[in-house]
């Protein structure tokens, strides 16, 4: 299996950059099936917010490449629920260099993820939103506490 990944616009501008070709690996196949929206932690956090009577909207695009998982328009809050693996959580993110045939691609991908996160945060803040980033593990451990941190 070969996975072709979409590239960020600024990368795509360079016409001579070849498309990434990933070598199929066991871990790659495992990760390829992961969903990016309506994840379990997102659902748990939404449920906890709802239980507190908080009104929110889902996946509202605030700008190009800036779509928080949850926005609370009344409070001006933009919430991103970050998966521990993809967004390199300090506890569950990868701490050793990648190995294997796709090591360099993984490394680059993780750097791009961090840049994309920083960009989305800056963009939302520049539009007047207060950004709250919540880790997947934080929500999974205690959705109510995570919801409290979002609104308080
Ligand atoms: Zn984590």
Task: Chart the SSEs and their pairings.
Blueprint: H1 9-12, H2 26-32, H3 40-51, E1 57-58, E2 70-72, E3 77-82, H4 103-126, E4 130-135, H5 136-141, H6 143-151
Parallel strand pairs: 3-4
Antiparallel strand pairs: 1-2, 2-3
Biggest sheet overview: 4 strands, mixed
SSE order:
HHHEEEHEHH
> What is the CATH superfamily label?
VSR Endonuclease
CATH architecture: 3-Layer(aba) Sandwich
**How would you classify the helix and strand content by structural class?**
alpha+beta
Number of domains: 1
**How many angstroms separate the termini?**
46 Å
User: Looking across the biggest beta sheet, what order are the strands in?
Assistant: 1-2-3-4
Oligomer state of the chains in this structure: single chain
CATH topology: Endonuclease, Chain A
Give the low-confidence spans: 3-9
Task: Report the average pLDDT across residues.
Answer: 87
How many beta strands in the DSSP annotation? 4
Q: Count of helices? A: 6
Shape: globular
CATH C-level category: Alpha Beta
Structural account:
The protein is an alpha+beta fold. It has one domain (36-151): Endonuclease, Chain A (3-Layer(aba) Sandwich). 41% of the residues lie in helices and 11% in strands. It contains six helices and four strands, in the order αααβββαβαα. It has helices spanning 9-12, 26-32, 40-51, 103-126, 136-141, 143-151; strands at 57-58, 70-72, 77-82, 130-135. It has a four-stranded mixed β-sheet, sandwiched between helices. Strand 2 and strand 3 form a beta hairpin. Helix 3 (40-51) crosses helix 6 (143-151). The longest helix is centred in the last third of the chain and has 24 residues, at 103-126. The model is unreliable at 3-9 (pLDDT under 50). The structure holds zinc ion (ZN). Zinc ion binds next to helix 5.
């Amino acid at each position: 299996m070969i996975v072709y990944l979409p590239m960020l616009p600024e990368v795509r501008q360079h016409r001579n950059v070849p498309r990434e070709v990933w070598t199929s690996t066991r871990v790659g196949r495992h990760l390829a099936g992961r969903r990016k929206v309506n994840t379990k932690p997102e659902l748990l956090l939404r449920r906890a917010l709802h239980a507190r009577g908080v009104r929110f909207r889902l996946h509202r695009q605030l700008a190009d490449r800036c779509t928080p998982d949850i926005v609370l328009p009344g409070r001006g809050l933009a919430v991103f629920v970050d998966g521990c693996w993809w967004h390199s959580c300090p506890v569950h993110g990868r701490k050793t260099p990648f190995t294997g045939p796709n090591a360099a691609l993984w490394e680059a991908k993780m750097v791009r993820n961090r840049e994309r996160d920083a960009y989305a945060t800056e963009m939302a803040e520049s539009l007047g939103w207060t950004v709250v980033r919540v880790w997947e593990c934080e929500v999974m451990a205690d959705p109510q506490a995570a919801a409290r941190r979002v609104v308080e």
